[in-house]
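Hey team,

Filing this mostly as a record. A colleague (T.K.) asked me to run one chain through the structure pipeline before their review meeting, and I want the input and output archived in the tracker in case anyone asks later how it was produced. No errors, nothing strange. Just documentation.

Input sequence:
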Amino acid sequence: MAEIIRMPRLSDTMEEGTVVKWFKKVGDLVKEGEILAEIETDKATMEFESFSEGELLHIGISEGETAAVDKLLAIIGKKGEDISDLILKNKGNIQTNEDNNFEKVVEKDNTNDFSSNDYEIIKMPRLSDTMEEGKISKWFKKVGDLVKEGEILAEIETDKATMEFESFHSGYLLHIGIKDGETSPVDSVLAIIGAKSTNIDSVLSSIESTSFSQKEKLLNNLDELRTDSNKSIPETKVLYNLADKKERIIASPLAKRMASEKGIDISKVKGSGENGRVIKRDIEKFNFDYSSSLPQNVIQSQTESIAEHTNSQMRKSIAKRLSQSKFSAPHYYLGIEFNVDNLISFRKQHNDFKEAKISFNDIIIKATAKSLKLHPEVNSRWYDDKIVQHLHVNIGVAVAVDDGLVVPVIRFADEKSLLDISLLVKDMANKARSKKLTPSDMDGSTFTISNLGMFGISEFTSIINQPNSAILSVGAINKKAIVKNDKIEIGSIMKVTLACDHRSVDGVTGSAFLNTLRGFIENPVTILL
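Output structure:
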């Protein structure tokens, strides 16, 4: 069955998007996870990947065109499938129902003038460009409540922030698919909104059977696979199908993930859901009822005193992004010491005569921004076919929070005063710790600074915050013996380390940047010039 792809909501404030570029054309085969198009939002330009597999049968929004969120973007389905009815029904229309009666929903509770086909499936939205799954922090509606377009449905925790998610449809909340505290992948069923008369059991069965039939179709279509020499691969097909038919287990995505995390063979778990489907409670019950079947060493480890903490969306995102950066970008490191006696005096004089105080970190951000302006090679991004040097300087500032680390961005830092930078850093840090940062607060950095000096760390290295080409690690200020004017004196020293992506920043380039930075840090009055 053909799948309708709609203009996605790629940020919490996005109302419409412009298709910058299509990476597929009508007739192309699309695999799940492949990039379909590049979409410009109100905050950034992002790649949009497909969550469906099949042939691209129709493109609803051409390159350069702008359309509202939920408009028909594309249709993916089986080769030769008739989609004329789908195109007709969705032309100038954001709904998939047989009728467009949702506009008739009013505040009165006795609204019953809908057919049983009037419902809308709400899926877990992609609220940031890196979001893969979301956690429901809180539902503001319960099953049976009347929902009006624009009302807040739920609060969703992503890998970057916790955001309110509003409804784009009017009707009754018929079903909640992801409960408070539960986590589920993007595009999984979040809720169903529709008429009171809707047969919700039938709708849920239809969703389940559709999902299963799509999986069956993909398995049965393996015989269409060809090698590069256009030869069939029957051995692969036969082995895969036989194994799948023997071991296939019906389980929810959450149950599968929990089983994987706990090291449980899900084929040994008895499902209590519909048609024997393995669900969350089955995995939780398995750990208790079937522990005797585990190896003895595993049982013993479970009796030890330990404390388990479920990974937050932010922590999982940090793990994935940093792993990708570490193993995709060839890192190298350049270390240097700065004499910061003048820096200390400069800050003291400033704060003695100014009501608004500045920190050492504020000065470092400003000095770094001015240095990057003179060395755009470091203020860059690597692509397979080109290197883009940014003419503006957006400094990402790493901020520690309870769940991990976030990187709010100081935009056009080279053009801002020290006081402006100080106020922005304080505001971003407060928003980060209260989970009020939005995706736009964290998008668009061209360089990153991580400062652990305030925690007493003298020297360290950081993993590059991609798509940046470099990150500066700033250590603590320590006193030590130094040679100054051929005499040994006690001076204040700060060590910094620059981690660079060797694909875009060579060693000489990184060294030149650090020497320019040294000039600004050791003679801070030049920052003001």
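Quick notes for T.K.: The first strand starts at residue 3 and ends at 6. Residues 200-220 form the longest helix (21 residues).
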